UniProtKB/TrEMBL annotation:
Superkingdom per UniProt: Eukaryota
Organism of provenance: Laticauda laticaudata
Ranges annotated as spanning the membrane: 7-25, 79-101, 121-141, 153-172, 196-217
Alphabetic keyword roster: Membrane, Transmembrane, Transmembrane helix, Transport
Entry GO terms, CC: apical plasma membrane
Predominant localisation class: membrane
Protein name: Aquaporin-5
Pfam families on file: MIP
Family: Belongs to the MIP/aquaporin (TC 1.A.8) family.
Matches recorded under Gene3D superfamilies: Glycerol uptake facilitator protein
Length: 277
């Protein structure tokens, strides 16, 4: 299981950076537009979520992983490993597209930069707002407690990322993903003086979104013991929680009986369940 999770997050992030950054290159015969770049980022996210969502959750973004950790939906171990794998995957993806592209085309590698007429405070706020919007969408469309069909989740998330880029590119190049900003900067050895914005902005936006959704708008009905079990990575075998096909996650959130089984079962096993996106 761990091998699958590691592979999914690493490969998913690498493919995302490789394709998304490649869409921004300025070829002699065709200059990319903001719409083209925004759609490339959004559609690539949609594709990665569709491919890897059922395996690892397809976070492919340290800010998203932080949001799910703050929301008490993944363990501390998974949080740390995902963050590392996402950064490594981003470096691999950016390195690959840089290596296979002609020098005059790959020169900028779409490194995030704050627009000259935008202050650091304004750029910081833009990154917070855009990340907040995307993460709120992720929580909403992947919430296992929702009764309606969630088959549109991947497309919804991709459209949210597209929306963010349609606005954010003009201000900061649109990060909303620290790994996406870090990798090109490392490959080129070119760090913007305000590079911290591309970490702190998405992280704060993700934390605020997690708190608002998971503790204010749609709080989870979990006891302190259950929250601690999730934090540590302890959870009852999934078969104990499955009631009907395709409804395993709903029973985890809504069935008080299953919660009691979780707490009283003396044979708790250490596992990392796929969980939400």
């Amino acid at each position: 299981l761990w091998r699958c999770l590691r592979t999914a997050e690493f490969v998913g992030t690498a493919i995302f950076l490789c394709i998304a950054l490649g869409s921004s290159f300025k070829w002699p015969l065709e200059q990319p537009s903001v719409l083209q770049i925004s759609l490339a980022f959004g559609l690539t996210v949609t594709t990665m979520v569709q491919i890897f969502g059922h395996i690892s959750g397809a976070h492919i973004n340290p800010a998203v992983t932080l949001a799910f950790f703050v929301g008490n939906q993944i363990s501390i171990v998974r949080f740390v490993f995902y963050m590392i794998l996402q950064v490594m995957g981003a470096l691999a993806g950016a390195g690959i597209i840089y290596a296979v592209t002609p020098g005059e085309v790959r020169s900028t590698l779409f490194v995030n930069q704050v627009h000259k007429d935008v202050t650091s405070g304004e750029a910081f706020m833009v990154e917070i707002i855009l990340t907040f919007s995307v993460v709120m969408c992720i929580f909403s469309v992947t919430d296992k407690r929702r009764r309606e069909n969630r088959s549109y989740a991947a497309l919804s998330i991709g459209l949210a990322v597209t929306m963010a880029h349609l606005v954010g590119i003009y201000y900061t190049g649109c990060s909303i993903n620290p790994a996406r900003s870090f990798a090109p900067a490392v490959i080129l050895g070119k760090f913007d003086p305000f590079h911290w914005i591309y970490w702190m902005g998405p992280f704060i936006g993700a934390i605020v979104a997690s708190v608002v959704y998971n503790y204010v708008l749609c709080p989870q009905r979990l006891s302190r013991e259950e929250r601690l079990a999730i934090f540590k990575g302890f959870f009852a075998p999934e078969n104990n929680l499955q009631q009907t096909p395709g409804n395993r996650a709903d029973s985890r959130w809504n069935s008080e009986h299953s919660s009691q089984v979780l707490l009283k079962n003396s044979s708790l096993s250490v596992i990392v369940f796929p969980g939400p996106l």
